Amino acid sequence: MMLRAYELGLGTCWVGAFDEGEVARILELPQNIKPVAVVTVGYPNESPQSNRLSVEEVAQFVQD
Q1: Nearest-CA neighbor of 2 among 44, 52, 45?
Q2: How far apart are CA 18 and CA 24, in angstroms?
Q3: Mean pLDDT across the stretch 13-33?
Q4: Fewest C-beta in 10 Å: which of 20, 27, 41, 61?
Q5: Which residues is 39 bridged to in the sheet?
Q6: Helix (H/G/I), strand (E/B), else coil: 39
Q7: What global pTM score does this model have?
């Protein structure tokens, strides 16, 4: 879902710290359903620069 949102020009953020009971109440979830994450979605104000290293820079593949 987050990758598809990115393809559509949207920004996302995975949130794992929230009031589970309040989210369950707002969404009117049944008792047996527990929210474990919330994903926010929106149009970003900016496009941050990525400082990620390539796979070749951080991993070495060894064959036996």
Answers
A1: 44
A2: 11
A3: 95
A4: 61
A5: 14
A6: strand
A7: 0.61
Give the model's pLDDT for residue 37.
96
For the chain, domain boundaries: 2-58
What one-character DSSP code corresponds to residue 60? -
Closest among 15, 11, 37, 12 to 24, alpha carbons compared: 37
Instruction: State pLDDT tens for residues 37-64.
Output: 999 999 988 776 778 888 889 998 888 8
Give phi and psi for 26, each to the nearest 5.
Answer: -60, -40
pLDDT at 41 (0 to 100) = 96
- Calpha distance 23→27 (Å, rounded): 6
Find out whether 11 and 41 touch, Cβ atoms under 8 Å: yes
| Residues 22-39 as b or e (16 or more Cβ within 10 Å = b) | ebeeeeeeeeeeeeeeee
